[in-house]
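Work Package 3 (structural annotation) set out to generate three-dimensional models for the target panel prioritized at the project kickoff. During this period the team completed the workflow that converts sequence records into discrete structure tokens, so that structures can be stored uniformly alongside our sequence database. As a representative example, we reproduce one entry of 673 residues exactly as it appears in the project archive.
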Amino acid sequence: MNALRGSLTGSLMARRLAALRDVDARVHGALHEAMPSLSDAVVDEAQGAALVDLLAQIATEAPDAALVLARRLANEPQTAANVHALRKWAVHGLQLHARDPKRQLSYFQWRDPQVFADQRTELDSAHLLARRDALLHYLGGFAVFTASSGVGVELHEPQDLRLPQPAATMSGDVIRMPRRCEGIVPADRDALYRATVAHIAAHLKFSPLARAAGNRRPMLQAMTALIEDARVERLMVRQYPGLRTLWGRFHTATRASAGFQFAGLAARLARALHDPTYQDTNDWVTEGRARFEQAACDDIFNVAAFDRVARELSIRMSRMRQTVPPNYRPAPAYRDDNAMLWDTRGTTPEEEADVALVEVELRRDAPAPTALELSGLDLRRRFRYPEWDCKLKAVREDWATVVEPLSPQRQGARAQQGASLRRLRIRGLERTPDRSIRIARLAEGDDLDLNAVIDNAVQRRSNVAPDGRLFIRHGRRRRTTAIVLLMDLSVSTNRFVPGSFTTVLDVEKKAAAVVAQALDQRRDRVAIHGFQSNGRHEVNYVRLKDFDESFDDAQRRRIESCKGELSTRMGAALRHASAALDAESTDHKVILMMTDGEPSDIDVVEDDYLVEDARHAVVDAAARGIRTFCLTLDRRADAYVRRIFGTRNYLIASRADTFAGWTGKTLVRLAAH
């Protein structure tokens, strides 16, 4: 019996199937009906549990799509043999058609679930994605884009593996590359990527882009693109001679390998135009080379002359009864599909004369919308963040949405320090040294001054009386710090702290108030934020006190009005807090998380998914110079908190009445590093 049916009484499968039934009973029933067909594909309980988890996740996002997939498993059981590839395919569909339920349902009903199962394709795709930043730097060296232009390198949409891979293309500000490097050995992949990027840069520098295609036939378009490829490469080689060798390693077409069909002849002509040492006896290739060289000799910047060469070659090719194949891809492999050269919706100059002008009336003083008209609109700001999928070991781009209300109008200027409230002080902050400040050349101090020691040795060797001041001491001025106190506002914070009649949320409120009032805002910038989640599409984030606000009665009322509701999607909140700290220009940046339990949300049923995502968010913050620390009242938190924040970056407070004190001590510790 297969793993799904034979292990229904096992603890792992029992939990997974129960979770699936709670999410969607229809999908649960469809899976039971598919079990006999899955006996050969699902080989163990772990694979079966992963399959059930995947169906549960899809069901939380798109119940009808999950039902369609569960029914497909009965007819296509081989799909379940590779749950990892199936998960990639499902997540891709959820993200690709997130705002179009009809297309999303069609994706799960008709698209091939095996498109992510080919190992070579996946290796090539991962290899390219790992080198995106390097390719963008390489492209920037050709001075075709500015640093702020937002150009990106992405992959083509996955397609049936039986079809040839599409050529590279550029659409808008995105360069899309093929997922598989067909006919290229792994050692040449990096060279292929650089050759492709350099070729696209040549078009951007020297080609007239988005020309009206008009009534040009496919043969003429393909030939014009081939001639234009050779022209811009010739110009590019003048500025960057090394590109001739880079491009030349991919020009391998010969009479024997390419043949006499359109694609083969085009590849042979491309090589003849690039490599002056290449000899080809075909009359059409010889004529094309001669006409191109004549046009280049006359004026290589005269695009119209090269268009005439392309037209003459296309006419002769048509007389040879040759046609452009349906899946034609320009050769060699590094060349793009030349889509940027054409505007298929454009008009020719003759057609532009027939365009009618439409008069438009503009109203200068349109009345502003009333409050009643705006009352039904959702004016909250939305921010999209990635999320880490620990099963795929990959980032889901733009997966979680943080929703933040518009900031209320701040009335008046910042309150003067110490004017209305008696400020508290956290003992220890004033004595915290700044290790970035060092007082050198001292007769006594904390450490040896290595520069002074070296100078002392040189002076002794030179028979000069040495300077005896060989020590250094760290300065006592504390560095400026930006701190985000991130409060967990989920429904679980409404529970009482064990051994007291105080809720976790009340403890968090008190600790936040103590810290905000105690820190010196002349040197420390403190923000108090809170979060709660209702699925990945709605991670609610509220700024109770922002960096530029003083802590007065308005901020106190905001904190006191907080209620514990919904769930705890910690990773998205940490990324949003990190984004807020990125805008601060202080010496030290800290996120202090106050929570009562591990991450959870209504649309996640898999163990460890949100824990691993939160850990990934902490790692990302550390890479940006942001320290994260967690304070929790959950006595069982040791296992998951250590995984998320690290061994020395959390503290479990056992009593509610000491939580605020521990918060102050934690800040002293964080400010000292």
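The chain has four domains: 3-117, 122-343, 434-475, 481-671.
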